[in-house]
């Protein structure tokens, strides 16, 4: 079984056979419904729906990693660094638990494809939607609801990220909004 090749945050190859998922790939190598039932019971899903759900689950797990103050193996694999390199590049002597979380959130937000911000009529920050994957599947993270929402053609998937991680990302996006729009902050 091959691992899924990823382009940005989107899945581009079948996790079972490695073939391109463009043009409605039907995999001959994927587990049959009896195998899938034994592994997790999602036999009612199509191949694309399974891929979409796996991708949304992976994104929600990565968002949840932002809330822990450590540098877990999963997080370090996601950023493609070992712990020493990450500390040398992004942190400083005497860093704290909160420093690690802030750096992880900043790096996460810097790496998204796009951010849509919702503000009130008076310009007060409300929430943001961050585009994590684009073009197959499209995956958004909404800081108002804490939902990771994926869509691939007519298929949709929704997974919830932890409220703590959602709050950290929302707080960072709100501060980013204020920093980019100082005239709104000064009006208060």
Q: Kindly report the spatial arrangement of strands forming the biggest sheet.
A: 3-4-5-6-7
Number of helices: 7
Radius of gyration: 19 Å
Shape: flat
Helix content: 40-55%
How many separate structural domains? Answer: 1
Major beta-sheet overview = 5 strands, antiparallel
Unreliable stretches (pLDDT < 50, length at least 5) are: 1-11, 23-39
Report on the architecture of this protein.
- It is a single chain.
- With 188 residues, the protein is α+β, with helices and mostly antiparallel strands.
- It has one domain (46-187).
- It is 42% helix and 19% strand.
- It has helices at 33-39, 47-65, 73-79, 83-90, 97-110, 163-180, 182-187, and strands spanning 6-7, 10-11, 114-119, 125-133, 138-142, 147-152, 155-160.
- The strands form two sheets. It has a five-stranded antiparallel sheet with strand order 3-4-5-6-7, covered by helices on one side. It has a two-stranded antiparallel sheet with strand order 1-2.
- The protein is flat and about 50 Å long.
Secondary structure elements and pairings:
Elements: E1 6-7, E2 10-11, H1 33-39, H2 47-65, H3 73-79, H4 83-90, H5 97-110, E3 114-119, E4 125-133, E5 138-142, E6 147-152, E7 155-160, H6 163-180, H7 182-187
Antiparallel strand pairs: 1-2, 3-4, 4-5, 5-6, 6-7
Helix pairs in contact: 5-6
Structure at a glance:
The chain has helices at residues 33-39, 47-65, 73-79, 83-90, 97-110, 163-180, 182-187; strands at 6-7, 10-11, 114-119, 125-133, 138-142, 147-152, 155-160.
List keywords for this structure.
two-stranded antiparallel sheet, alpha+beta, 188 residues, flat, single chain, 7 helices
């Amino acid at each position: 079984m091959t691992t899924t090749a990823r382009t940005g945050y989107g899945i581009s190859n079948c996790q079972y056979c490695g073939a391109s998922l463009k043009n409605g790939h039907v995999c001959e190598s994927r587990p049959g419904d009896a195998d899938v039932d034994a592994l997790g019971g999602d036999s009612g899903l199509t191949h694309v729906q399974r891929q979409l759900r796996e991708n949304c689950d992976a994104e929600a797990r990565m968002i949840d990693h932002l809330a822990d103050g450590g540098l877990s193996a999963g997080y370090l694999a996601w950023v493609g660094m070992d712990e020493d390199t990450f500390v040398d590049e992004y942190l400083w002597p005497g860093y704290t638990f909160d420093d690690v979380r802030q750096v992880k959130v900043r790096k996460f937000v810097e790496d998204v494809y796009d951010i849509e911000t919702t503000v009130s009529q008076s310009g007060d920050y409300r929430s943001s939607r961050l585009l994590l994957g684009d073009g197959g599947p499209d995956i958004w993270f909404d800081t108002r609801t804490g939902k990771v929402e994926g869509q691939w053609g007519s298929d949709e998937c929704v997974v919830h990220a932890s409220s703590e991680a959602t709050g950290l990302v929302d707080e960072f996006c709100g501060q980013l909004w204020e920093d980019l729009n100082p005239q709104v902050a000064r009006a208060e």
